[in-house]
Specification:
about 280 residues; alpha/beta; TIM Barrel; eight-stranded parallel beta barrel; globular
């Protein structure tokens, strides 16, 4: 397992002004970087890749969909825009040299049907994601779709739903990003949820129950890592924490206060906490 950090803690788009964070991550003890893929184009991610190559960090990315580009939509035009957006994600991820493409690239965050997902939504999503997985496999990448808690989406919330969706998509390059923050809300037993997902976990997000610095809250990271290791998982273990510095993201995730004092504290304390939790696993 490699230890990584998601840079959504710093910016929704990591440009040259944030590239110094790559060195900070390496100094703090991370092996891997996960970049948010919310805007820009392949040329932007190619520049980030060149800097990451110099630092010596492997990388993945996280991406989302939008209300006007939703692959699960009943509207054919919106659904086609959603498929085009999934193709854009893969183009950018390839330019980055990403091993994994994770995140909630299923349905827009904060958009609700006020009911659970319909059979039609699931079928439309699975068709789009199977096609995406075919292309990801051709480019040497794995997909890791992220279930979110019920306050952020109605599409996928639990490990049981996620496992069923993996089976519906039915492609070896398609799996799940398991996030301990969302699971802390939705699962009765995180260890049982992890066992149920098994080999479908392609990326592990280690996120504290308040989305602050891992190791300062309620999540039992040593037990989580032991359970994930028992599934045979050997992929990226990525620290994710959110701050209030990104207004759009803060609003979407309901972060109204600072959850860590500064990025250096988050990087160093987060790395130390998860490294310590990884040792027994």
């Amino acid at each position: 397992m490699r230890l990584g950090i998601n840079l959504l803690c710093a910016s929704g788009h990591v440009g040259p002004e944030q590239f110094s964070l790559f060195e900070l991550a390496e100094e703090a003890g991370f092996d891997h970087i996960e970049l948010p893929m919310l805007s820009g184009g392949p040329q932007d991610y190619a520049r980030a890749a060149a800097r990451l190559d110099k630092v010596g960090l492997s990388r993945g990315c996280t991406a989302i969909t939008h209300p006007d580009a939703d692959p699960t939509s009943a509207d054919p035009a919106i659904r086609e825009a959603g498929r085009a957006h999934l193709a854009w994600i893969l183009d950018c991820a390839e330019a980055l040299g990403a091993e994994t493409v994770g995140g909630p690239f299923h349905a827009p965050i904060g958009e609700f049907s006020w009911a659970g997902p319909t059979e039609e939504e699931l079928a439309r999503g699975a068709e789009a994601h199977h096609q995406m997985a075919e292309e990801a496999q051709r480019r040497g990448m794995l997909l890791a779709l992220e279930p979110l808690n019920r306050f952020e989406t109605h599409f996928l919330n639990t490990a049981e739903q996620a496992r069923a969706y993996v089976e519906r998509v039915d492609h070896p390059a398609f799996g799940i990003m398991y996030d301990t923050f969302h699971a802390h809300i939705e699962e009765k037993d995180q260890l049982a949820a992890i066992a149920h997902l098994g080999e479908a976990i392609h990326v592990l997000h280690v996120s504290e129950n308040d989305r602050g610095v891992p190791g300062t809250g309620q999540v039992d990271f040593p037990a989580i890592l032991h359970a994930v290791k028992a599934t045979g998982f050997d992929g990226p273990v990525v620290v994710e924490a959110f701050g209030s510095g990104l207004p759009d993201l803060a609003a979407a995730t309901r972060v109204w206060r600072p959850l860590f004092p500064d990025l250096e504290t988050l990087f160093r304390d987060g790395a130390q906490a998860i490294r310590s939790a990884m040792e027994p696993a």
